[in-house]
Design a protein that fits this description.
By secondary structure, the chain is α+β, with helices and mostly antiparallel strands. Helices cover 55% and strands 13% of the residues. Strand 5 and strand 6 form a beta hairpin.
C-alpha cells in the first residue's frame, strides 16, 4: 500500500518502492520489508530495543525508528503493534495487520491542509492513536461509579471479577501514555530535516493532550484503589458483625453450658437429682439467664 503527499493532500497511489521518490508513505508487511532490506542498503534498520515490546523511539543520523504497542480498548490481552521508519523524503510503516491502513484511511477523509508535509502527517498518525481515548476513559468512569454503588449496596459478588480487570487495563493505558510522552519529549528537541518548527509546535500540543489523558487514567486508577478500600472496609464490617453475633451467642450459651456440665456430673449424693421439680427449675433458671443476658446486651447496645 502506497500513499503520496501532493498539493497538501494525501492520495492513494499505485507505485513501487524507489529510493529517489519523495513525499511517499509505504505500508509493508514484515516479510515484504525483509525482502526490501536485502535489496536496498539504506533500509537495513537497526532495532536496538525491539525486544522490549513497548512504544519507543530511536533516533539515528539518516532515519528515525518508532515502535508502537497500543493496548486494545476491547480486549486487555491484545495490542495493536506496528513499526514506523521516518526518512527525510518518505515514511515506511511495517504492519502485519490493517491497523495503520485504517488510520491512514481516516486521515485521507480529512480536507486539504496548509503546508502539509511528512512531519505533520506523522503528527496526525499520533493523533489517531489517541482518538476517542477520552470517551474510552469516560466509559470506565461510569463503570467504576456503578461498581461503587454496588459496594455501597453490599452486592459484593458482582465486583470481585470486574474491579481488578479494570485496574489492570487502566495501568496499561497509563503506561502507554507515558511512553507516548517519551516519544514527544524526544521529537520536541529535534528541529531538523525530519520535523520543522510548525510540526514541533503541533507535537507540543499533542504532548499536552497525552499528558491530560495520562492524568485522567491515573485518577481512575486511584478511584479503583478507593473502591477496593471501600470494598475491603465493607467486608471487614460484615465480618465484624458476624463475629459480634457469634460472641453474643457464645456468651449466652456459656452459662447454660456451665449448668448442664454441673448437673451432668452425676454424683451419688447430689440433692437436686432426687428433687421432684428439679428439671423444671433448671429450665426456668436457664430462661432467666438468657433473658438477663439479652437485656444486659441491649442496655449496653451490643446489638
Amino acid at each position: 500500500m502506497v500513499y503520496e503527499l501532493k498539493e497538501n493532500t494525501l492520495f492513494k497511489v499505485d507505485k513501487k518502492f524507489e529510493e529517489n521518490q519523495k513525499n511517499l508513505i509505504y505500508i509493508f508487511s514484515s516479510n515484504e520489508f525483509s525482502k526490501l532490506e536485502k535489496r536496498y542498503s539504506n533500509l537495513k534498520i537497526y532495532r536496538r530495543h525491539k525486544t522490549y515490546r513497548c512504544t519507543q523511539i530511536e533516533v539515528y543520523n539518516n532515519y528515525i525508528y518508532c515502535d508502537f504497542y497500543i493496548p486494545s480498548k476491547i480486549n486487555m490481552k491484545s495490542r495493536n503493534s506496528f513499526e514506523c521508519i521516518i526518512f527525510k523524503d518518505y515514511i515506511i510503516f511495517i504492519d502485519d495487520g490493517d491497523f495503520v491502513e485504517k488510520i491512514i484511511s481516516n486521515i485521507c477523509v480529512n480536507p486539504k491542509k496548509n503546508n502539509y508535509n511528512l512531519g505533520k502527517f506523522f503528527y496526525e498518525i499520533l493523533s489517531e492513536i489517541i482518538y476517542k481515548d477520552i470517551v474510552f476513559l469516560d466509559s470506565y468512569d461510569e463503570k467504576l461509579s456503578k461498581i461503587e454503588q454496588e459496594v455501597i449496596e453490599n452486592n459484593f459478588e458482582k465486583i470481585i471479577s470486574k474491579l481488578p480487570e479494570i485496574k489492570r487495563h487502566l495501568m496499561l493505558y497509563c503506561r502507554h501514555y507515558s511512553q507516548l510522552l517519551s516519544i514527544c519529549d524526544i521529537i520536541k528537541e529535534m528541529v531538523t530535516d525530519f520535523f520543522d518548527k510548525d510540526t514541533i509546535h503541533l507535537i507540543t500540543l499533542y504532548s499536552n493532550r497525552v499528558d491530560r489523558l495520562r492524568e485522567e487514567s491515573e485518577i481512575l486508577k486511584e478511584y479503583c484503589v478507593q473502591i477496593q478500600d471501600m470494598y475491603q472496609a465493607q467486608i471487614n464490617v460484615r465480618q465484624n458483625d458476624i463475629m459480634k453475633t457469634l460472641t453474643i451467642v457464645t456468651t449466652i450459651v456459656l452459662p447454660l453450658s456451665l449448668v448442664a456440665g454441673w448437673y451432668g456430673m452425676n454424683f451419688k449424693y447430689m440433692p437436686e437429682l432426687n428433687t421432684r421439680y428439679g428439671y423444671y427449675v433448671i429450665i426456668v433458671v436457664s430462661i432467666i439467664i438468657v433473658l438477663f443476658c439479652l437485656v444486659l446486651f441491649k442496655k449496653k447496645k451490643y446489638f
